[in-house]
């Protein structure tokens, strides 16, 4: 299984970025997908999750209302649209699979991880 994340970069506060994560080696449509992030010197934290159907989503409080997770099963890709970015959103962002029904906010519950993509928000 491989997860390839992309879309990170440098953006000014208030700006937007869209991250993508393309999966191979698993039946993408059968699995929920998650996004996590890790800021320098901090532990990895949950950002968002989407169910395998795409109907259900859940967000960390810190990003709710600003970030949107979505998926395109035809492209085996999950997205994270990030709007109104703030300096404290600066981190390496990781996609992960599969998102299990229980404890999907905990990174230890995921088996596969992308390589991460760096998002830097300048204030």
Description:
Helix content is 0%, strand content 50%. With 123 residues, it is mainly beta. A hairpin with a 4-residue loop joins β7 and β8 (77-82). The relative contact order is 0.32.
Helical coverage, percent range: under 10%
> What general form does the structure show?
globular
- List low-confidence stretches: none
The computed structural class is: mainly beta
Count of strand segments: 11
Radius of gyration: 13 Å
Secondary-structure element pattern, one letter each:
EEEEEEEEEEE
Strand content: over 45%
Tell me about the largest β-sheet: 7 strands, mixed
User: Assembly type of the shown chains?
Assistant: single chain
Number of helices: 0
Mean pLDDT: 96
What's the N-to-C terminus distance? 37 Å
Topology:
Layout: E1 2-6, E2 9-12, E3 17-24, E4 32-38, E5 45-50, E6 57-59, E7 67-72, E8 77-82, E9 91-99, E10 112-113, E11 117-122
Parallel strand pairs: 2-11
Antiparallel strand pairs: 1-3, 3-8, 4-5, 4-9, 5-6, 7-8, 9-10, 9-11
Please provide a brief summary of the model.
This protein is 0% helix and 50% strand. By secondary structure, the protein is mainly beta.
List keywords for this structure.
single chain; 123 residues; mainly beta; seven-stranded mixed β-sheet; four-stranded antiparallel β-sheet; 0% helix
